[in-house]
Amino acid sequence: MSDFDFRHWSHRAADWGADYRETLSRRPVRARTEVGDIAARIAESPPEAAEEMTQIFADFEAIVPDGLTHWQHPRFFAYFPANAAPAAVIAEQLAGAMAVQCMLWQTSPSATEMEIKMVDWLRQALGLPAEFQGTLQDSASSATLCAVLTMREKALDWTGNQKGLFEQQRLRIYASHHTHSSIDKALWVAGIGQENLVKIPAGPDLAMDEEALQAAIDQDRQADHLPAGIVICVGGTSVGATDHVDAVCRIAEREGLYTHVDAAWAGSAMICPEFRNLWQGVERADSIVFNPHKWLGAPFECSAHFVRDPQSLMRTLSIHPEYLKTYGKDGIVNFSDWSVQLGRRFRALKLWFLLRAYGLEGLRQRMRNHVAWSQGLAERLGAERDFEITSPPMLSLFSFRYRPEGAKGDALDALNLRLVNAINDDGRIYLTQTTHAGALVIRFQVGQFDCSADDLDQAFDTITSMARGLTTA
Predict the structure, then answer these.
(1) Per-residue DSSP letter, 203
(2) Is 444 in contact with 459 (CB distance < 8 Å)?
(3) Which region holds residue 68: left if phi is over 0, alpha if psi is between -120 and 50, else beta?
């Protein structure tokens, strides 16, 4: 492709992206394709000869958009959003054009030094103490893996990487039943094993039972196991379960355990001071993760990982072959020493654009709106005689179910599964189901960057009309 063609098709792609965003609300939120439909339209074998960009772009337009679930749709109320604020999308375009590799300071000084500053901007925005430093990981899963590896190494006096886990004491890590499955997977990858993730029951408020946590630690020590760390949940994926951060950290301090706070979704809301009571005591934690690529508006992937003691993280993950060394420079930071990945994208650029283009107050107002709108919808649904709120709003997330007179047990679960499937097939909004307190319920979260109050009105109308249509069909 010539420079001229690159310029032409870059403009064409930018125009297509702008048109897509402007007309997105007219599309169904979720793809209406069957399994295999898209694959059937893609050639079985790669072409031997180059093809014209005109044909490639035309095929993209004909095949790809209609086969997508549209995460930037204003009525995407499923999962937690993977927002891509327009100003940050521009930064992604620039980063893609430059295509730099940001593993070391010497391979991309601007990327490294901007990452240092952007992580500190985020730290200030969240109200964290100045002792916290950090890096931008690809996802919360990776940040949690780094934290679990650090727990492992500290507990084993830094011998795990060299000697492995054979003939070592059995390590134990503790977390609530409501924590994300990425914690389970981190223990798999770290070689600690699923059986050594001790799931602590939660109380009526969905927070980890601290007495049960202390009892589990005591029992493990008596069994000659080696407690290593605690993963603390702030905003669980299912219904927003949140542990008592301060109380759990105090237990960890007494027991000499490393703590990691998983606030992947809810952490973004902490730019609003009035929500920080949800993680009171977080300054005691050793490690914290939240995802700017969810609620805050940075395009995926961009996960902020803060640590109080960077040396522990680097001691766990640093490896320095000759070809990665930088000579003749003092005070440099190589962020590949802070992560499992060696290769790294220029993630800081989109944060720089995002935070400057919208400002903290602009981002705060969006979150405040989302929380207020979600709480308003929960109140409206809860006032309907045939609906019930099964978990109250945690920030902008709540759960509900349709409960017409006479429906109960398995039949009620089946009815609500039919409802969520019917809503998603309808296409006006997109929701997901979960299980809570032994029942199948429907999750609702507000967080899409361009969502409006009118979209919540449409959600109410869609949910209630689709539900009542099921009983008369």
Answers:
(1) -
(2) yes
(3) beta
Chain mean position to CA 56: 33
Question: Which single residue is written with the structure tokens 């072409």?
Answer: 47
pLDDT of 473 reads 46
Residue that wins the pLDDT comparison between 321 and 10: 10
Which among 20, 7, 27 has a CA at the least distance from the CA of 89?
20
Q: What SS3 class is residue 131?
A: coil
Please, where in the chain does CATH 1.20.1340.10 lie?
A: 3-82
Give first-to-last CA distance, the chain, whole Å: 56
Cis-peptide, bond into residue 131, ω within 30° of zero: no
Does the pLDDT of residue 316 top 80, yes or no? yes
- Least confident segment among 79-83, 171-175, 195-199, 266-270: 79-83
Q: Kindly report the length of the chain.
A: 473
Start and end residues for every CATH 3.90.1150.170 domain found in the chain: 361-472
Sheet holding 432-436, edge to edge: 387-394, 397-402, 439-445, 432-436
For 226-264, letters b (16+ CB in 10 Å) and e give ebbbbbbbbbbbbbbbbbbbebbbebbeebebbbbbbbb
Tell me how far apart the alpha carbons of residues 238 and 442 are, in angstroms, rounded to a whole number.
10
Question: Is the domain covering 361-472 a CATH 3.90.1150.170 domain?
Answer: yes
Mention every residue, 6+ apart, whose C-beta is less than 8 A from residue 306.
Answer: 119, 123, 128, 132, 133, 134, 287, 288, 289
Question: In angstroms, what CA-CA distances link 432 with 161, 238, 418?
Answer: 40, 10, 12
C-alpha 170/C-alpha 227 separation (Å) is 8
For 334-364, what is each residue's pLDDT tens digit? 878 888 887 788 899 999 999 999 999 999 9
Task: Report the distance separating Cα 153 and Cα 164, nearest Å.
Answer: 10
- The CATH code of domain 3-82 reads 1.20.1340.10
Helix (H, G, I), strand (E, B) or coil at 113: helix
CA–CA gap between residue 305 and residue 89 (Å, rounded): 22
Neighbouring CB atoms inside 10 A of 425's CB total: 11
- Domain 101-345 listed as CATH 3.40.630.30: no
Residue 449 to residue 396: CA distance in whole angstroms: 13
Which residue spans of the chain are classified as CATH 3.40.640.10?
101-345
Let me know: does 305 contact 118? Beta carbons within 8 Å. Answer: no
Q: Which residues contact 380 (CB under 8 A, 6 or more apart)?
A: 460
